[in-house]
Amino acid sequence: MTIKTTLITGKLNDTSDRALKENISDLGDSTYTLNQLKPRKFDWKRDEASNTDLDNQVGFIAQEVEAVNSNLVSGNEGEKVIYTIGLVAIAVKTIQELSQRVADRDAEISALEDRMYKIEQRLI
User: Fold this and answer.
1) Greater pLDDT, 63 or 53
2) What is the pTM of this model?
3) What's the confidence (pLDDT) of residue 52?
4) How confident is the model at residue 48 (pLDDT cuts 50, 70, 90)?
5) Pick from 64, 65, 69: which is nearest to 28 by CA?
6) Is 93 helix (H, G, I), strand (E, B) or coil?
7) Which of 2, 80, 105, 84 is nearest to 45 (CA)?
8) Phi and psi at residue 58, in whole multiples of 5°?
């Protein structure tokens, strides 16, 4: 396999119209899935003709992603690719879950501060 660097300018669009989809449902707990992924640093193997800087890259290893969620990977061994927009959806869902947890904790802290204030007022 030859790795080639291609410059892409403009917009990268992922077909996403509701009219093209069926069986639409919310993602489940994505925090667990996201925590299983292993972001990696790596250097691409290069052939003799390559003059592109392929060192110090970041990303994922398809086989590792496939072990977590096989729907995010396609292709045969040696040519596997990752469905990156699927990773984005999982990341967004995880951010939403974590945001809700922060909001819940903020409400708990506020309630505890309220209780503490009332207790302090009784002691004065």
Assistant:
1) 63
2) 0.77
3) 65
4) low
5) 69
6) helix
7) 2
8) -130, 150
Per residue in 1-13, pLDDT tens? 555 555 566 667 7
72 pLDDT above the threshold of 80 = yes
Residues 60, 62, 67, CA angle at the centre, nearest 5°? 105
**Do residues 92 and 109 touch, judged by C-beta distance below 8 A?**
no
DSSP state, 9? -
- For 104, how many CA atoms within 13 A lie in the half-sphere containing its CB? 6
Considering only CA atoms, which of 47, 80, 33 is closest in space to residue 61? 80
Which residues does 34 contact at the CB level (< 8 Å), separation at least 6?
90, 91, 94
Q: What is the mean pLDDT of residues 16-42?
A: 93
List of residues 6+ apart from 13 with CB closer than 8 A: none
Q: Which single residue is written with the structure tokens 């299983």?
A: 36
Give the closest residue to 41 by CA, choosing from 62, 24, 55. Answer: 55
Tokens linked to 120: 């302090």
